[in-house]
Amino acid sequence: MSVKTWKSDEVTIEIDYDKCNGSAMCVDQCPGEVYELQDGKAVAAYIDQCIQCCTCVEVCPQAAITHSACE
Description:
The chain is of the alpha+beta class.
């Protein structure tokens, strides 16, 4: 399994790259604009902007995102 991890002082976001299909739902729906696509995969490039709303987890059609505030 290929899991990428991003951490800030408040949250940890993991994206399972085996599941992520680059649909960009997290990019389009995240109110904090935390995500962007790089090489067809989501990355939490701006994790410090996360407002811990769990939208990313809810909208990911592949259930590829794990968020420490949304467990």
